[in-house]
Hints:
alpha+beta, Arc Repressor Mutant, subunit A, 4-stranded antiparallel β-sheet, 3-stranded antiparallel β-sheet, 7 helices, 23% strand, elongated, CRISPR-associated endonuclease Cas2, hydrolase, PaaX-like_central, transmembrane helix, membrane
Amino acid sequence: MKNYEHGELAKEILIGLANTGLLVACLAMPGLTKIIPLFDPKNVKEKYRVNRTLTSLQKNKLVNIYTKNGNEVIEITKAGKKKVLEYNLDELKLNVPKKWDGWWRIVMFDIPESKRRSRSAVSRKIKELGLYPIQKSVFVSPYLCKNEIDFVGEFFGVRDNIIYIKAKEIEGVSELKEYFRI
Length: 182
């Protein structure tokens, strides 16, 4: 088992549960859950750490732990799945190809004032992804980003307020090519 920083083990457990759906774990000792396929704890200290992390996840209602047919079942909750989406959002990056395909991707949004927090979060995340702001709610990228923009829009519940355009020509191309180094 690798040396996890604070919160990393919980993140790995949640992502593992999200990817497998249900995880049936055998009981190695009474009250001690052992998740060998995911973390391979080699000693009592590591087993305790995994168990403590699972207990914390259960306390925070991110997982349900129960016994079924003599096996302990660990199931991710709806809140746990949402937390995994947050992890995915934090790690979201654009795939930058070696050669540009000559197309510009323009992302525009008009998110109502009633969803101000979502609007700010979408704008911040689009900037983090590396898109260039050409207006307050209009961004451009030379790289394919539709899936990432769809994910961001869905995550913040404003996908219907975002428009994705693919264009061959755009004004200010020399500034954009310099910014993106293409």
